[in-house]
Amino acid sequence: MNNLFRALNDATRREIVELLHKKDLTAGEIADNFNMSKPSISHHLDLLKQAELILSVKKGQFIHYSLNRTALDEVMDWFMTFKPTTPEKIESVEKPRIRIMLTE
Amino acid sequence: MNNLFRALNDATRREIVELLHKKDLTAGEIADNFNMSKPSISHHLDLLKQAELILSVKKGQFIHYSLNRTALDEVMDWFMTFKPTTPEKIESVEKPRIRIMLTE
DNA sequence: CAAATAATTAGACAATTGCTTAATTAAAAA
DNA sequence: TTTTTAATTAAGCAATTGTCTAATTATTTG
């Protein structure tokens, strides 16, 4: 959990996560999206890997990175803990079983 | 968003959030839960406040802290972005204007 | 008013972070 | 086999972070 929050505590790394959400990319393709040296990006990828937020596979001289949604789910679960406790009585009306939301 | 992740990138601060989820507490009561000086806790509270993760109200010489779930929701929303993309087939159907969700 | 209590602010310091350039490793191409 | 390409590892440095003790502010109590 510590590693997860540490990895996400950086705008560049969160942006990498967003890029990999769209599609898998090589280290170089990721670096092309930033105005920053390749070693710096490599370092960010390393931290994301330590947190298991991303996965990597080497193919020839390229390393392909992809998002690991399992780790994201883990953080989500932590946040779910803080869903407000249901009030004892909502004006004595039973809690609804479904909710209708506007999309977008 | 930056401040939110920064505030949560510390085990002590996440524990404070968990304590305040259970019930509102004064600064001193929060400090009693940690083996750490009061000024340090005060500093952590300050960072949590900057991120608007907690709220404070002064009552006499005490300061009462409580959780601000709105900010937690904001982070949750960011994570929701990474829910796996809907499969292609559904894309030939017009996007629904409302969504019916199961609660709880 | 003087002393005690709750909490913060100030200042200092070691550890960590994020970046850079230079060097290294590994694979592909000439 | 030499050169080029993709990427990482190494080393160094300024900025930020987390902690502490000491000082300060504000409130309550004797």
In short:
Two copies of one chain form a homodimer. Chain A has helices at residues 2-8, 11-22, 27-31, 38-50, 69-80; strands spanning 25-26, 54-59, 62-67, 98-102.
Low-confidence stretches of chain A: 88-93
Distance between the termini of chain A: 31 Å
Oligomer: homodimer
Shape of chain A: elongated
What proportion of the residues of chain A is helical, as a percent range?
40-55%
| Number of strand segments of chain A | 4
Name the helix and strand elements of chain A from N-terminus to C-terminus, one letter apiece.
Answer: HHEHHEEHE
Number of helices of chain A: 5
Q: How would you classify the helix and strand content of chain A by structural class?
A: alpha+beta
Largest sheet: spatial strand order of chain A? 1-3-2
Q: What is the alpha-carbon Rg of chain A in Å? A: 19 Å
Overall average residue pLDDT of chain A: 87
Strand percentage of chain A, roughly?
15-25%
Main sheet summary of chain A: 3 strands, antiparallel
Q: Which chains share the greatest interface?
A: A-B, 32 and 32 residues
